[in-house]
TrEMBL record:
The lineage of its organism: Bacteria, Pseudomonadati, Bacteroidota, Flavobacteriia, Flavobacteriales. This is Aminotransferase class III-fold pyridoxal phosphate-dependent enzyme. The chain holds residues 576 to 1008 of 1008 of the full protein. Belongs to the class-III pyridoxal-phosphate-dependent aminotransferase family. Coiled coil: none annotated.
Length: 433
């Protein structure tokens, strides 16, 4: 018979042979063996409701996406220097969702690679290398991406902001530097201050990068009016605007297909990742023709895997499933319902200080009566709800935000189930503060 490797053996091997900076989810790690829709199954056949995985966008192992990949894989997979319909088909699907100004694509293999390329474009198009980014922002794992990710360089093992990175305060209207409904303008003013800093050093602005909802920052919705005002400052200074849609893109916001559209702005560059391949490594950079022209300065851009026919078949099918199954409208309906239920939960349990987010990208922040973060209780909740078969993740600079960003097929029934168990656990002794 087949020898089944124990979880202890898997962990021991990882400890010895895999990168030492890799962490494991949960104190008792789970081995997942199957996925279907919004559910995962562990080795014991136990089913979990997944409220975490925004990569499995149209559902884990969606049959049509799997089939699209399998069929193309059996035919041909080459680099994009040969003609193939698939890369054009994927670009066409994306074009349908984007404003007309954003019309030129580079296909890559990860969100990090997308942001890396976006920053190269900024440098090539502006001739400047100074970048403004948000406090607690995360944009990827490469050298340049770490250099613009305060989440990393201001955290454990980090060495602070590099010379050409300029960080403005997390635009958190709940517990940040400026609070309440009118926080948009003062936070945009903080971006302007960074532009002035760059000028004071005798340099010019390259670009400004931000997520429409700052995920690692704790699902921070950009305050109303902030993005439009910040873009205006950036453009006046000759800089380019990048919207990092790696987490929030492809219909998840519900009201809009892309996060930037919530703010009625048009970026110069948009980066797309996680959901586009539904788990297959596929990402993209879309930019204006002006930026694309300046980037094509004579140096060829080549990417061995980017835009290959298999990846493009998968990405095209993901976007077609979003359309066919009306998942954007679904995210709006279920997300609106869930947010309303979370708000009423917050009325019963005041340790939920804030409920925020759009569509199926929500967060709840746990604080005490002095507005101090409750990290321990947040971790307790995430671990306790796992015992009820529900997977949740925590984040934010103070580790006190529960994030909800499930596969988009997450149903109203799933939302009810989640609320039921949250209510049950919040009533337990440990949660009383
Ligand atoms: N941007 C954002 C907002 C992300 O959350 C991530 C990954 N968590 C990345 C970029 C990097 O993507 P990848 O891990 O695919 O390189």
């Amino acid at each position: 018979g087949k020898h089944t490797v124990s979880n202890e053996e898997i962990i021991a091997f990882r400890k010895q042979h895999l990168g030492k900076g890799l962490s494991l989810q949960y104190k008792v790690p789970i081995k997942m063996v199957r996925g279907a829709g919004q559910y995962l199954m562990d080795q014991y056949g136990r089913k979990y409701l997944d409220t975490v995985n925004n990569v499995a966008h149209v559902g884990h192992e969606h049959a049509a996406v799997v089939e699209a990949g399998q069929q193309q894989m059996a035919l041909i997979n080459t680099n994009s220097r040969y003609l193939h319909e698939n890369i054009n088909a994927l670009a066409r699907e994306l074009l349908e969702t984007l404003p007309p100004q954003l019309s030129v694509f580079h296909f890559v293999n990860s969100g990090s690679e997308a942001n890396e390329l976006a920053i190269r474009m900024v440098k090539a198009a502006t001739g400047e290398k100074d970048i403004i980014a948000s406090e607690v922002g995360y944009h990827g794992n490469t050298n340049m991406c770490i250099d613009i990710s305060s989440y990393k360089f201001d955290g454990k093992g980090g060495q602070g902001a590099p010379e050409h990175t300029h960080i403005f305060p997390l635009p958190d209207a709940f517990r940040g530097k400026y609070r309440g409904e009118d926080a948009g303008a003062p936070y945009a003013g903080e971006v302007k201050k960074q532009i002035d800093n760059i000028h004071a050093k005798g340099r010019g602005l390259g670009g400004f990068i931000i997520e429409p909802i700052i995920s690692c920052g704790g699902q921070i919705e950009l305050p109303e009016g902030f993005l439009a005002a910040a873009y205006e400052y950036v453009r006046t200074a000759g800089g380019l605007c990048i919207s990092d849609e790696v987490q929030v893109g492809c219909g998840r916001m519900g009201k809009t297909f892309w996060g930037f559209q919530l703010h009625k702005v048009v970026p110069d560059i948009v980066t797309i990742g996680k959901p586009l391949g539904n788990g297959h490594p596929l990402a993209a950079v879309v930019c204006t023709p002006e930026v694309a022209k300046k980037f094509a300065n004579g140096m060829e851009y080549f990417n061995t895997f980017g835009g290959n026919p298999v990846s493009c078949a998968i990405g095209t099918e993901v976007l077609r499933v979003v359309k066919r199954e009306k998942l954007q409208a679904h995210a709006l309906a279920v997300g609106t319902f869930l947010k309303k239920e979370l708000i009423s939960l917050a009325l019963d349990f005041p340790i939920i200080g804030d409920v925020r987010g759009q569509g199926l990208f929500l967060g709840i922040e746990l604080v005490n009566e002095k507005m101090e973060p409750l990290a321990e209780q947040t971790t307790y909740l995430a671990n306790r709800i796992k015992e009820h078969g529900i997977l949740m993740s925590t984040d934010g600079p103070d580790h006190n935000v529960l994030k909800i960003k499930p596969p988009m097929v997450f149903s109203q029934g799933n939302a009810e189930e989640l609320i039921f168990y949250l209510r049950k656990i919040l009533a337990e002794d440990f949660m009383k503060v």
